[in-house]
Specification:
Structural class: mainly alpha
Shape: elongated
Number of strands: 0
Number of helices: 4
Largest sheet: none
Order of helices and strands: HHHH
Distance between the termini: 68 Å
Strand content: under 5%
Length: 91
Amino acid sequence: MSDCHGLGDCEDDRMKRIYEYVDGALSREDLNEIKQHLDGCEECAQEHSLECLIRSVVKRSCQEAAPQTLKERILDRIGHLEAADSVQADA
């Protein structure tokens, strides 16, 4: 499948190790081991790059504010729904 060596079965364990690596959740020794592995395994390096890209896009997306017009439309719709519920409760 790939040129994976030294970390066990990359096919099964690869993403868990890459997530831990990206999260900084590994010991210094394990970080160095994963870094060396990524330097020598193109498939795992691509998985690492993809995970970093996904996290970057998600982080950037979470920083964008909703447009004020969207907020106003939501609040307006909530007001209409509350008014309709009130009318039904009175009936």
